[in-house]
């Protein structure tokens, strides 16, 4: 498994444990956690790039090999969770953009059930956005009325949520993701200038539907594209969540890196310190999506977030208010 995240040490007394699985268009994520002081403490986090959404934007079908890779990753996650004491009923697994788009998602759900013994739920984009917001803002040091913009870049879709800790003023899932837009626009290696322009024109037209906040905004960037951009900027290898989560990144830093990435071949990107090699082909599009979103919202810096949907799902399904 790639991208092993930091985990906390086990205490002498074990609390009830839970697991959440987020199967995205590009990456499958696992979180195993237990309750601690009204919240949750991570025991284990894993990330595996399975590229479930390979070719889905054009075909509207999940490829058999992509479904097999993803189902096998979930089966391994279920084994890891069981080894850490998680009961089957305390595993929640969801899938997002690629499965929403595909006409044969029922095959994926059946395969995951057969290989992993896990019920995989396809969630709507609005639910994905809401859960991501909860996960991304839970440990932010912000006031109750501070204006927030949470932006989660996935492989097939990206979610933008504007509001405060207690209120959503705008919430939308855009059909723009690092895999989808790489396949649609960036077909040369490295991308040609006209491909780059077409990509940014497309992003500008889509984000125009989102409001521009009037008050100063704390912009929070979520998920693997954002954390990878930060690790590339600071040559962090291997990945360390403590050196990434809640750190700051400027729009100018992002723009300079994005320009560099567009000038490199995929092979050259793979050689960069701080990148997961399987992200090399889609990271340029991901950086462009993030830059376009920041420009639309009108911010000059962001807070990097290592948490998102899997943490929001944990709170929603297994939080203190739930009867489990």
* Total number of distinct structural domains: 2
Order of helices and strands: EEEHHEHHEHEEEHHEHEHHHEH
Oligomer: single chain
| CATH structural architecture of the largest domain | 2-Layer Sandwich
Average per-residue pLDDT, rounded, comes to 92
Main sheet: strand order: 8-7-6-9-11-10
Shape: globular
CATH superfamily of the largest domain: Exopolyphosphatase. Domain 2
CATH topology of the largest domain: Nucleotidyltransferase, domain 5
Approximate helicity band: 40-55%
If you had to describe this structure to a student in words, what would you say it looks like?
The protein is α/β, with parallel strands linked by helices and 324 residues long. It folds into 2 domains: 17-125, ATPase, nucleotide binding domain (Nucleotidyltransferase, domain 5, 2-Layer Sandwich), CATH 3.30.420; 140-306, 2-Layer Sandwich (Nucleotidyltransferase, domain 5). Helix content is 40%, strand content 21%. The protein is built from 12 helices and 11 strands. The chain has helices at residues 56-59, 64-83, 97-101, 105-116, 125-137, 178-185, 193-207, 224-234, 251-262, 266-270, 283-297, 309-318, and strands at residues 17-23, 27-36, 39-49, 91-95, 120-122, 148-153, 158-163, 168-174, 218-222, 248-250, 301-305. The strands form 2 sheets. The chain has a 6-stranded mixed β-sheet with strand order 8-7-6-9-11-10, sandwiched between helices. A 5-stranded mixed β-sheet has the order 3-2-1-4-5, sandwiched between helices. Helix 9 (251-262) packs antiparallel against helix 11. The longest helix has 20 residues, at 64-83. Mean pLDDT is 92; it is low at 1-12.
């Amino acid at each position: 498994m790639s991208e092993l995240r930091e985990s906390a040490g086990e205490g002498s007394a074990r609390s009830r444990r839970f697991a959440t699985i987020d199967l995205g268009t590009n990456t499958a994520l696992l979180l195993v956690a237990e309750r601690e002081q009204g919240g949750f403490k991570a025991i284990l986090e894993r990330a595996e790039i399975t590229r479930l959404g390979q070719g889905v934007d054009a075909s509207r079908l999940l490829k058999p090999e992509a479904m097999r890779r993803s189902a096998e990753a979930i089966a391994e996650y279920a084994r890891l969770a069981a080894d850490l004491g998680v009961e089957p009923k305390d595993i929640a697994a969801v899938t997002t953009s690629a499965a929403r788009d595909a006409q044969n998602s029922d095959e994926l759900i059946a395969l995951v059930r057969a290989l992993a013994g896990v019920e995989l739920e396809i969630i709507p984009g609005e639910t994905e956005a809401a859960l991501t917001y909860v996960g991304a803002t839970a440990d932010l040091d912000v006031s109750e009325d501070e204006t927030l913009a949470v932006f989660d870049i996935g492989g097939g879709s990206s979610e933008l949520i504007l509001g405060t800790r207690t209120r959503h003023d705008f919430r939308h899932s855009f059909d723009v993701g690092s895999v989808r837009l790489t396949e649609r626009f960036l077909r040369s290696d490295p991308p040609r200038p006209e491909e780059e322009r077409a990509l940014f024109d497309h992003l500008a037209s889509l984000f125009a539907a989102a409001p521009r906040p009037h008050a100063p905004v704390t912009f929070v960037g979520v998920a693997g594209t954002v954390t990878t951009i930060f690790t590339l900027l600071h040559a962090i290898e291997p990945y360390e969540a403590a050196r990434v989560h809640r750190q700051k990144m400027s729009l100018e830093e992002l723009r300079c890196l994005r320009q560099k990435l567009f000038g490199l071949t995929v092979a050259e990107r793979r050689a960069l310190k701080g990148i997961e090699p399987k992200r090399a082909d889609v990271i340029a599009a991901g950086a462009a999506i993030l830059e376009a979103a920041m420009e639309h919202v009108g911010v000059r810096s962001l807070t990097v977030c290592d948490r998102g949907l899997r943490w929001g799902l944990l709170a929603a399904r297994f939080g203190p208010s739930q009867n489990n």
